[in-house]
Design brief:
Blueprint lengths: L9 E6 L5 H10 L4 E4 L3 H8 L10 H9 L3 E3 L8 E6 L14 H13 L5 E4 L7 H14 L8 E4 L18 E5 L2 H11 L6 E3 L3 H32 L3 H8 L19 H17 L4 H26 L9 E5 L15 H10 L3 E5 L14 E2 L3 H7 L2 E4 L8 H7 L3 E3 L9 E3 L1
Parallel strand pairs: 1-2, 1-4, 2-3, 4-5, 5-6, 7-8, 9-10, 9-12, 10-11, 12-13, 13-14
Antiparallel strand pairs: 6-7
Helix pairs in contact: 4-5, 7-9, 7-10, 9-10, 10-11
């Protein structure tokens, strides 16, 4: 039990039980804390309380273990009344102007404010732009509760670092960055996380912690944009970029390998850098040139892959119009079912706009819905390859038979650099 002020009936309330909130609740529960999960979705809450998981990285068995350890889920916000710590893990999607849509964060803050008691620790984990914790969340909490952050209750920001499908790094062994509204807020939040995280790194304040998350993903966005641009001109120059990368990464210092692909997906890379870009424009009136250029390059990749596929069909005298294109792997990263912002969706739209019939094979996805595209699911890879005019390897799940794809596909565009053979063309 944490000795953080008055001991109440719940050590932790986690608001938002998705890919971030549920792993947090799991780690905290298994460390011995009494944890309650709060979500607006009765479907999610009922499923968890019945032992069913909706998150790739947590199995039904693990959910049952959490229930046995004392975890419960609810839609009743009154659980905040008796909580030592409340952590906000709700989504922050892009708004219509390219910045973060804070409606879920602000809604969660308003709910907390209605139930906030003195000595409670409130932490925001949802990714957002620098200043959100202090300028947006704090005033709502203070206005609704009549309490003052840093005096009556503690307030901090700690960016989530969940990497779905990562078999090596999880909640416990991934360092946790924490920045508080005051130094005392930082200290208390760090003490909280150290109960179930091996390494906690204390930031100067909330803005530094918020910016650290954006820097991490902007770094990836820019470097992926670089190699995606290189993929396009290396193809025109007749240079094998995959071999180039292998040669470059033999240098033991000064280089980190990034790889091209059909675009970027997930919540982090395609979305987080735009929070920073939009915020810089709004506050400083200046463009974030590297970020916006990288975003433009990465967003162009589905259309580029479609054109490359069309050109590949032309080499055997076939038109894209009327051809059957098999998209292999439609999730945003390998070995999970998560389709958030997957580049496979805009790729399918590009293919369909050129007249292709789009089929897909993905063992992790039973129902793939793409706006404006009538997709057809193939359940047998060998048959799907035989029935297609060209295949595109979009996601290289470990369970895929890459040898079968290389051998049996009439033509294949490999966007992941994993295939070889006379009918294979690499991105």
């Amino acid at each position: 039990m944490l000795s953080l002020g008055v001991i109440l009936s719940a050590d932790l309330v986690v608001i938002g039980l998705g890919y971030v909130g549920l792993p947090l609740a799991q780690a905290a529960t298994l460390s011995g804390l009494k944890v309650v999960g709060l979500d607006v979705s009765s479907k999610i809450v009922d499923g968890l309380n019945s032992g069913r998981s909706h998150v790739d990285d947590i199995s039904d068995t693990e959910v049952s273990e959490l229930l046995t350890a004392g975890f419960t889920a609810t839609t009743d916000a009154s659980v905040i009344d008796d909580a030592n710590t409340v952590v906000i893990c709700v989504p922050t999607p892009l708004g219509p102007e390219g910045g973060p849509d804070l409606k879920y964060v602000l809604g969660a803050a308003a709910t907390i404010g209605e139930h906030l008691k003195a000595q409670t620790l409130v932490i925001l984990e949802s990714t957002t732009y620098p200043g959100t914790t202090d300028e947006e969340v704090r005033p709502i909490l203070e206005s609704a509760s009549g309490l003052t952050a840093g005096l009556d209750f503690n307030l901090a920001f700690s960016p989530e670092r969940i990497d779905p499908g990562n078999p090596i790094y999880g909640m416990k062994n991934t360092p946790k960055v924490v920045g508080g509204h005051t130094g005392a807020c930082t200290t208390r939040a760090a003490e909280f996380y150290r109960t179930f995280v091996d390494t906690v790194v204390e930031a100067r304040g909330t803005r530094e912690a918020e910016m650290a998350k954006l820097l991490e993903n902007t770094y990836r966005q820019v470097n992926i944009g670089l190699v995606n641009e290189m993929a396009q001109f290396c193809h025109r120059l007749g240079i094998d970029l995959w071999d180039v990368i292998e040669m470059a990464k033999s240098k033991p210092f000064g280089f980190q390998a990034f790889y091209p692909g059909p675009g970027v997906g997930g919540h982090c890379i395609p979305i987080d850098p735009m929070y920073l870009s939009q915020n810089v424009r709004a506050r400083l009136g200046a463009p974030s040139q590297f970020i916006e250029t990288a975003q433009a390059v990465n967003n162009s990749m589905p259309a580029y892959v479609a054109r490359r596929t069309q050109n590949l069909l032309n080499t055997v005298g076939k038109a894209m119009n009327g051809s059957t294109v098999l998209v292999i792997g439609v999730t945003y990263k390998p070995d999970i079912s998560d389709q958030r912002e997957s580049p496979a969706a805009p790729l399918a739209q590009e293919l369909a706009s050129l007249g292709a019939t789009v089929t897909y094979f993905d063992p992790y996805v039973e129902n793939w819905q793409v706006d404006g595209v009538d997709t057809h699911r193939a359940t047998d890879l060998a048959t799907a390859l035989t029935d297609s005019d060209v295949a595109i390897l979009v996601q290289n799940h470990k369970i895929l038979d890459l040898e079968l794809i290389s051998r049996d596909a009439p033509l294949v565009l490999d966007t992941r650099g994993k295939l070889s053979g006379p009918q294979v063309e690499r991105l």
